Amino acid sequence: MNVYDTARMADVLAPLGYSAADGPEDADMVILNTCHIREKAAEKVYSELGRLRQMKEQRMADEPDRAPPVLAVAGCVAQAEGAEMLARAPFLDIVFGPQTYHRLPEMIARVERAAGNNKGKSGRGAGILDTEFPAEAKFDHLPKVSPGARDGKGTMAGCTAFLTIQEGCDKFCTFCVVPYTRGVEFSRPGQAVLEECRQLVSSGVREVTLLGQNVNAYHGTGPDGDNWDLAELIARLAGIDGLARIRYTTSHPRDINDRLFDIHGHCEKLMPYLHLPAQSGSDRILAAMNRGYTAADYQAAVARLRRIRPDIALSGDFIVGFPGESEADFEATMELVRAVKYAQAYSFKYSPRPGTPAALLEDQVPDEMRSERLQRLQALLDDQQQAFNRQMVGKRLPLLLDRGGRRPGQLVGRSPYMQAVHLDASVELLGRMVEVEITAAHANSLAGQLVEPALHRNPRQLERVR
Ligand code: 5AD
Ligand code: SF4
Q1: Which ligand is nearest to the CA of 323?
Q2: 3.30.110, 3.40.50, 3.30.450, 3.30.1490: which CATH number matches 2-130?
Q3: Distance from the CA of 173 to the center of ligand 2, in angstroms?
Q4: Cα-to-centroid distance, 97 and ligand 1 (Å)
Q5: Which residue's alpha carbon is at the smallest distance from atom 14 of ligand 1?
Q6: Among 34, 208, 440, 466, which has the minimal tally of Cβ within 10 Å of its Cβ?
Q7: Phi, psi angle pair for 90, to nearest 5°
């Protein structure tokens, strides 16, 4: 979602004359968009800020006649620690949370006024803080998608895009900061999502990933005041000509309704890949996490999805070492993973987050134990990913070629199952759908070769190739 927010900030800034720079060194403004989900992510912010401070000082010394770069911190660390951050880093100009970036032009005008006052030479920043949760939704104030904003410069490749449809969360899992930093659950109106998707498609996007912290809880208002669930929204988006692929993330296992299960069986544009975080396989730990399902419920959802769409690839999130997790609890997680067989997954050591209930629990698991369990879980998940990749060898898959490879003459595309596939192909094929035969499987990617004819007139035909 930070990638999406960053792209939208670029849309907000484009009318002011800003465009993406190649790096911070020569930029007029640097915005660090930050993540607070685990301690490690939050810590990175302060080391990065140290570098930015040096850069600002160097620039002021080297180019005394040029205005110093505007330094800003955005995102959830800003939201959670805004005032403290300004105290620790007085050279910052702006600190703002994820719900106020539509107000960036005003904030920049205030920085310019402050710089006019002290001639911008003191090295002190303007110190503007905006971490409100405004009553008005930022989406109502964001401009249209600006052409070229999705050109891959620090954001994303031109033919794939993220699109936030839902934000915030009311689930209050006991380990998670999201309900506090992103705020309460909010769904964008259906028409606004359709409109933004059409804008993306007309600027060259072929694949859209619908985003939300709890995306399958989506309940947007339709044009007649009716309620659209995620399945309805997907069905409507699938009607947009030129859009070839739809994905969505991240889902909560409790919020898959019947229509959402079913649409995986009949919407050709909906890709056969689902990220469905389990977090743990132990019912005791799942209850302590306030997840609202058991391991058996999770497995039942997976089995139903596989009945409806047998080739669906599953991904997940896991936390090891949640407070009170015993060896038996951890073994239950390993058992769940063995039973589900993931195509890929993310796994993390539990990280106590300030303000969350789990951080106050007494039976915190020692760090060495968390690390050791994480290693065991990751070894199992890696084996599963490799097995999943190996079974692709010899198959033909439709790819959307979305970026250049490491070598000249090489392109990379995504399979329907989210695997990166490397192949030799001419650069004109970038942004196009092609059919590829998989020739080799690696740990994190596949290799393939083009099947002739490389291009089909009708991309929908390619979506049917399995
Ligand atoms: N510690 C470790 N992992 C966490 N996640 C969320 N909060 C924490 C935490 N406190 C993980 C969850 C979630 C993913 C986005 O990050 O697995 O699904
Ligand atoms: Fe955090 Fe996801 Fe739980 Fe919401 S559902 S509180 S975003 S882990």
Answers
A1: 1
A2: 3.40.50
A3: 5
A4: 20
A5: 317
A6: 466
A7: -65, -10
